[in-house]
Please model this.
Amino acid sequence: MQKENMFLFVFFRTFASQKQLKSMSKIEKYKLLTEQIRALIEGETDSVAVMANVCAAIHETMGFWWTGFYRVKDGQMVLGPFQGPVACMHIGYGKGVCGTAWKEQRTIVVPDVELFPGHIACSSLSRSEIVVPIFSKSGQVAAVLDIDSKELSNFDDTDQQCLEEICKMLSL
Model:
């Protein structure tokens, strides 16, 4: 991370204490988060480092239950950097929410995971989920951002739009 970016990151973290974050609207949090992530990843070329910091920033700012990445590798999805309890390590193409988002190359919002056909229950505590594909420069799905909540119907159009914007910043 460049020196200026570290300053911006520290500024954002100082500005947005947990108490302040709780009083902000969802859109205000995402605006702050997007700027923080832009500063964090600028000039970084290591995809694992980028995913690790993006994951941590999203998880800390938004307070989700599980936040992480699955990377496409050798015809399957393999667990990448994440925040939260242990997770499934491998997911097949078209399997579960992550594999379906990979296959369909689109964001999937699941208000109730119990109603999603073929849902992979890495944890029985997960109640709703959003999965956003991340595309390589060649247009293929390179990874997905997977976020779970303990609350039903926790994800909406704001989450989808803002998380898609964040994922477009990632070049994997």
